[in-house]
Amino acid sequence: MKKFLITLSLALCGLAHAQMAPADPSLFKALGEKAGLVRLVDDFTTRLLADGRTAPQFKETKIPHFKEMLVDQFCQVSGGPCAYKGADMKAAHANLDIAKRDFNALVEILQQSMDAQGIAFGAQNRLLAQLAPMHREVITVK
What we know:
- By secondary structure, the chain is mostly helical.
- It has a single domain (2-138), classed as Globins (Globin-like), CATH 1.10.490.
- It is 61% helix and 0% strand.
- The longest helix has 18 residues, at 33-50.
């Protein structure tokens, strides 16, 4: 049921673009602020690199830079004081041949990381709702 609700949330959120910087910082606080996001991204990256479905996409990635950019992006979309200064999602994922199944695997791994970090289900869904519209720019293989 949980995966169905999150999948449904992603589908519904894909219908409208979310703002990159919500005015309400409550999600940022629910995620543990910057320190919590660093822990989440550390866990998430470890899982991405260990999972056979996603690891190949990261073989050429400069992991420290990836982590820094992801923390800033999660911080900004969750209403925190950070400013994401990385490439836009379309440019960052161009020529990577990312299919819907790849995107779904990444979301599944992010859910596992949020569970492992003790992030409340509601906060998980709120973060996923902020990130979901990016799928249009990330998925390149139809």
